[in-house]
Amino acid sequence: MVFKRYEWRLMLRVLLLFLTLLAISLIIVKGLYWFLLIGAPIVAFELLDFLKFNKKAHKEVEQFVESVHYRDFSRHFDVSHAPIELKPLRKGFNDINDTFKNINRERETQYQYLQKILELVDTGIISYEHESGQIGWLNESFKKIFDIPYLKTIHSLKKRDEALYNEVMLLKSGESKVVSITRNKQIIKILLSVTAMRSEDKLYKLLAFQNVSEALDETESKAWQKLLNVMTHEIMNSVAPISSLADTLKNWLQNYGKDGDKTDLEDLELGIDTIKRRSEGLLKFTESYRNLNKITKLDMKSVLVRDLFENLNNLMQPTLAKKNIELDIVLRDMQMTIDMDVNLVEQTLINLLVNAIDAVKDTATPCLTLTAETGANNKPIIKIADNGVGMPPELLEKIFIPFFSTRKTGSGIGLSLCKQIMMLHKGNIQVQSIEGEGSAFILLF
């Protein structure tokens, strides 16, 4: 609609030129050649006017294209003093420029707003172009954390901190890792995260450096506190009776033979045997603690879940049949596979099944359910559920603590090993339980 008058004027010029040429053709056909003296100048004038008109429009378009190319949207095309045929064209250019200026102004406002937000957060942030390594932006938090005022490229970080640079280069997009750096003679733990994004056929990477030392220290302190509470309880249970019995035996030895009673030898032998058993129990306890740290590497393979479940069923079926416990296996996708260390995961599932069997021992119709499915983000899940006694809420946060057990004969090692195995798989284990209704352990890969 903006170029309506421009188009009409262009069509009028073409029409006049056509009619003039038609008239000259008729003159030539009729043989009235002397009329060409009048027609030829008219055609020449119309052609020159047409070219001049087209040149003006072309020049205006060139200027507009140039302003767009250099993003110079501040240029204003004078409408009031323009030729009448170019006024709509210039007005259209001005409207387009105003639209671009408003868009740029909004983008600049958003950019400034985002910059202010990123400057306020206490997470160090760097963006850089992947191929050249050119730094696009880094915030003040990064400068403060690493005491680096400026980086031209990401490769410049190698001169500042080679270990950190190597960690950055090895980390893939979407991954996170806790790394330790030394600043002011102090070790700081940094959560390093990497995200990739593509813009204008270029790949950019966004790095986030979050100081998690305080959070990890607090979590570690709480974990140690819980661990020490359990260990102290277990060790005292063994040491206190040994100490008391040793005092008793010492008194027996001091009084031995004074009254001629030889039966004390049998009590002495029994006391020594008791000390030996409790000492061996304490050694076994400490050996169990050492076993928690033995698993360090995984033998990863792609495993068919149906084969895993079939092996478990064959292994546990005699025990289940003997105790009249039903095991339901739910696997909708028979081709479902999971990357895992099959031996360790099988050990984890056996531990959980043994616990579930113990949980349903007093249930009238005991039943266990073994399920595999795909959860959020297409990540595989294995679930073991029972209809046993369940657990109260206060126990749920303690059951994965080493040496904590709800059973008198339990070592408290099984679930701790299960959690460690799942964490080595970069997964986790969760528990859901309602007292009196049953429990469910969920393995997240």
**Order of strands in the sheet with most strands:** 2-1-5-4-3
Q: What portion of residues belong to β-strands? A: 15-25%
Largest sheet: 5 strands, antiparallel
Structural class: alpha+beta
Q: In CATH terms, what is the architecture of the largest domain?
A: 2-Layer Sandwich
Spell the H/E element sequence. Answer: HHHEEHHHEEEHHEHEEHEEHHEE
Q: How many helical stretches?
A: 12
| Distance from first to last alpha carbon | 60 Å
Q: For the record, what is the CATH homologous superfamily label of the largest domain?
A: Histidine kinase-like ATPase, C-terminal domain
What is the residue-mean pLDDT, rounded to a whole number?
76
- Uncertain regions spanning at least 5 consecutive residues: none
The value of Rg in angstroms is 42 Å
CATH fold group of the largest domain: Heat Shock Protein 90
Based on DSSP secondary structure assignment, what is the total number of beta strands? Answer: 12
Q: Estimate the global geometry from the Cα principal axes.
A: elongated
CATH class of the largest domain: Alpha Beta
Amount of helix: 40-55%
Total of domains: 4
Describe the structure in your own words.
This protein has a five-stranded antiparallel β-sheet with strand order 2-1-5-4-3, sandwiched between helices. Strands 7-9-10-12-11 form a five-stranded mixed β-sheet, with helices on one face. Strand 4 and strand 5 form a beta hairpin. The two termini are 60 Å apart. It is 53% helix and 19% strand. The chain contains twelve helices and twelve strands. The protein is elongated and about 160 Å long. The chain has four domains: 103 residues, no CATH class; 91 residues, 2-Layer Sandwich (Beta-Lactamase), CATH 3.30.450.20; 76 residues; 144 residues, Heat Shock Protein 90 (2-Layer Sandwich). It is α+β, with helices and mostly antiparallel strands.
